[in-house]
Amino acid sequence: MPRIPAVSAKDAGPLTKLLYRYAKKRFGAVPEPFAVSAHQPALMRASGIHELLVDRAVKHLPVSVRELAQYRTAVRLGCSWCVDFGTMLQKHEGLDIERLKHIDDYATSELYTRPERLALAYADAMSETPVAVTDEQVAELEREFGRAGLVELTYLIALENQRGRTNSALGITDQGFTSGEACRVPLPG
Q1: Which of 82, 105, 115, 148 registers the highest number of CB atoms within 10 A of its CB?
Q2: Which Gene3D superfamilies does the UniProt record give (predicted)?
Q3: CA dist 87 to 24, 39, 58, 66, 130, Å?
């Protein structure tokens, strides 16, 4: 249960109701972070627009690298909502979600490719307090993904840190997207 309640569709303004319908159609349920942020509608809209723009902007990273780096960040921060939602997104991308059970062993696991392991280590380093990224790590990531890919990876990990810390502070926990309790959107294909 979040520390402050979600804004119900009944209590939402007309634009928020419209955004709720869009979110429900896209994800099968209104994501709770979205509904809690509806207490400040301008920030909810800004966040929603930002998320859509980021999703459209990321073009250089392989999907598995992008999703795994964000998932690892969520795991490191202990954001159960982000882990739940991220697992659903990976499932919808056709990625192997069984290997997520072994995410803590990524550095030595054959389940993860070299580029994925590099991105996961970067997610770990960026999620430390203080940040523990090294020059060598950045140089290796730039060689692997190019400058644009490195910037995308950095941005996505930082964004996941923001999401996870916001959700944790507001007490937002998993919503049932992985189990199917909330997500009724059929898998693609």
Answers
A1: 82
A2: AhpD-like (1.20.1290.10)
A3: 18, 27, 19, 13, 27
Handedness of CA 156, 157, 160, 162 (dihedral sign): negative
Instruction: Quote the pTM value.
Output: 0.93
Task: Determine phi and psi for 187, rounding to 5 degrees.
Answer: -60, 145
Span 154-170, average pLDDT:
98
E-strand ranges in the chain read none
**In this structure, are 89 and 121 located in the same domain?**
yes
Token pair recorded at residue 65: 């690298």
What per-residue confidence (pLDDT) applies to 147? 98
What is the overall mean pLDDT for the chain? 94
Residues 46, 81, single domain; the answer is no
Separation between Cα atoms, residue 52 and residue 57, nearest integer Å: 9
CB 168 within 8 A of CB 78: yes
Q: Are 28 and 183 in contact (CB under 8 A)?
A: yes
Tokens for 188? 């693609």
Q: What is the DSSP letter of 8?
A: P
Q: 159, 54 in Cβ contact below 8 A? A: yes
Does residue 171 contact residue 3 with C-beta atoms inside 8 Å? Answer: yes
Is 8 inside any structural domain? no
CA distance 181 to 145: 36
